[in-house]
Design a protein that fits this description.
InterPro entries: Nucleotide-bd_a/b_plait_sf, Ribosomal_uL23, Ribosomal_uL23-like, Ribosomal_uL23/eL15/eS24_sf, Ribosomal_uL23_CS, Ribosomal_uL23_N. By secondary structure, the protein is of the alpha+beta class. Helices cover 33% and strands 18% of the residues. Strand 3 and strand 4 form a beta hairpin.
Length: 138
């Protein structure tokens, strides 16, 4: 009956304690919410940006100093002046694209005059002297 049901609820109690999450840090972070992927109504620029550093822009010119000639002959290494913003992987790819040679290692430094110099060590199957002749350094 209704009376018995009410009596039971009165004894047991209708309010239950809510379990609270135990906080272990004083810092509160807002939850990460859903961010929908961008779907622009129109293009913000008419043409996509051109790559500022292509292979021709990266490799500026080979160095023909005595010390660079010595490197070509003795250490199988070519020396180039490259764009200051070029990274070692970019230089490696540019050498592969322009001269069809595989570089095993690239070392760079920025000269006191502000230009970047790259020492491109060629892999064993390529001879720096032959490549230098082909390029026109020697």
């Amino acid at each position: 009956t209704k009376a018995l049901k009410a009596k039971g609820q009165q004894l047991k109690g209708t309010q239950q304690l809510r379990k609270r999450k135990i906080r272990t840090t004083p810092r509160f972070k807002r939850p990460e919410t859903y961010r929908p992927p961008r779907a622009p109504k129109y293009a913000r620029r008419s043409l996509p940006r051109r790559n500022a550093l292509d292979a021709f822009k990266i490799m500026q010119y080979p160095l023909t100093t005595e010390s660079s000639m010595k490197k070509i002959e003795e250490q199988n290494t070519l020396v180039f002046i490259v764009d200051k913003r070029a990274s070692k992987p970019l230089i490696k790819d540019a050498v592969k694209k322009l001269y069809d040679i595989q570089a095993s290692k690239v070392n760079t430094l920025i000269r006191p005059d502000g230009l970047k110099k790259a020492y491109v060590k060629l892999s064993a199957e390529h001879d720096a002297l032959d490549v230098a002749n082909k390029i026109g350094i020697i």
